[in-house]
Amino acid sequence: MTLEAWLLIAAIVVSLTAITLAVLVLRSQRTLGSAVAAPQAPAAEPTEDDAPRGPQLAFVANPSKNGAEQLKAALMSRCTAEGLPDPMWLETTVEDPGLGQTREALAKGADVVVAVGGDGTVRAVAQGMADSGKPMALLPLGTGNLLARNLDISVTDRDDAFDIVLHGIDRKIDVGWLRVDEPAAPRDKDREGNGPADTGTHIFLVIAGLGFDAAMVADADDTLKSKVGWIAYFVAGVKHLHGRRTEMTITLDDRPPITTRLRSLMVGNCGRLPGGITLIPDAIIDDGIHDIAAIDTRGGLMGWVQLFGEVVMQGFGVSNDLPNKIGRIDHTRAKDVHLEVPEGEQVQVDGDVLGRARAVTTWVDPSALVVRAPAPRLSPR
């Protein structure tokens, strides 16, 4: 092949290569220009399927309770896993045990307010929720957990209790109120509950009492309660087995007053206590009336033994109607109760000691509170 032929072939190859490179460069410039000039595709808007669903929860929590911080983390994770809106977490303080936080939660649009704590927290949240029409739910962290026990909400299984928060039924229950009409002079300022009671009005959901029961609650040791729970109340009660009987004048609704001597007079909205004890077996939490239990013993320790046996038996539906009993518990019913105690006695509401009083009045507020409760179990056929 001549030199001219080789040069011609080389020229053709170079030309083809240059043309190919030019086409590739032109295409890349067009692609790059399109990429720069064209607006970025907008991010996909969240659809209704992606939005959080379910109720807006507000937890009103007592941070002093054991396990409260760990429970907070677990609850937040559970709410995220359930696809719920971000919940509110409002902590109680010594100055405000939950009423202000509950009102704040309602003002911010909470659908369900959950009391996370003991009976004191439950009472404060209930006071803020009464007559609101919104449901209150419970995550028990206390010693007695009285309302939770009477609603059959687990006091040990937190997952089960939270399932009720989400999937339980809304139930209207009665609320009790106790007003201290006349405080009593302090007997011993250094002991809890022995100062004069606050003359304000106090909510209760389970039982209010005056006498032995309040003294027992007042003397329960906090350290012992944290270790053995509700048993600490019975240990404290031993100190008062030989205490004096108290003169009381009792007025029920519009009936004539009755003056008698008792160990305790208790007004019950419902009657189940820790340890499987049913103190007031006929009390129903939504019947619009309170059940009253008058407790008395004589004869020292034998009277208390007989009384305890009667309490246990009535839990099984067995009553002891023998006359002249030295330990007895008598029941009646009323919507309004007025008590006068000339010497003064300690008063408690749902395990919170109010102090000493010479006169108190209680009344029932029917169907005032909506609670989130377990769905009723179907009876097997």
Automatic annotation (TrEMBL):
<keyword id="KW-0808">Transferase</keyword>
<protein>
    <submittedName>
        <fullName>Sphingosine/diacylglycerol kinase-like enzyme</fullName>
    </submittedName>
</protein>
<keyword id="KW-0812">Transmembrane</keyword>
<keyword id="KW-0444">Lipid biosynthesis</keyword>
<dbReference type="InterPro" id="IPR017438">
    <property type="entry name" value="ATP-NAD_kinase_N"/>
</dbReference>
<dbReference type="GO" id="GO:0016301">
    <property type="term" value="F:kinase activity"/>
</dbReference>
<dbReference type="InterPro" id="IPR050187">
    <property type="entry name" value="Lipid_Phosphate_FormReg"/>
</dbReference>
<keyword id="KW-0594">Phospholipid biosynthesis</keyword>
<keyword id="KW-0472">Membrane</keyword>
<dbReference type="GO" id="GO:0005524">
    <property type="term" value="F:ATP binding"/>
</dbReference>
<keyword id="KW-0067">ATP-binding</keyword>
<feature type="transmembrane region" description="Helical">
    <location>
        <begin position="6"/>
        <end position="26"/>
    </location>
</feature>
<dbReference type="InterPro" id="IPR045540">
    <property type="entry name" value="YegS/DAGK_C"/>
</dbReference>
<dbReference type="InterPro" id="IPR001206">
    <property type="entry name" value="Diacylglycerol_kinase_cat_dom"/>
</dbReference>
<keyword id="KW-1133">Transmembrane helix</keyword>
<dbReference type="GO" id="GO:0008654">
    <property type="term" value="P:phospholipid biosynthetic process"/>
</dbReference>
<dbReference type="Pfam" id="PF19279">
    <property type="entry name" value="YegS_C"/>
</dbReference>
<keyword id="KW-0418">Kinase</keyword>
<feature type="domain" description="DAGKc">
    <location>
        <begin position="52"/>
        <end position="182"/>
    </location>
</feature>
<dbReference type="InterPro" id="IPR016064">
    <property type="entry name" value="NAD/diacylglycerol_kinase_sf"/>
</dbReference>
<keyword id="KW-0443">Lipid metabolism</keyword>
<keyword id="KW-0547">Nucleotide-binding</keyword>
<keyword id="KW-1208">Phospholipid metabolism</keyword>
<comment type="similarity">
    <text>Belongs to the diacylglycerol/lipid kinase family.</text>
</comment>
<dbReference type="Pfam" id="PF00781">
    <property type="entry name" value="DAGK_cat"/>
</dbReference>
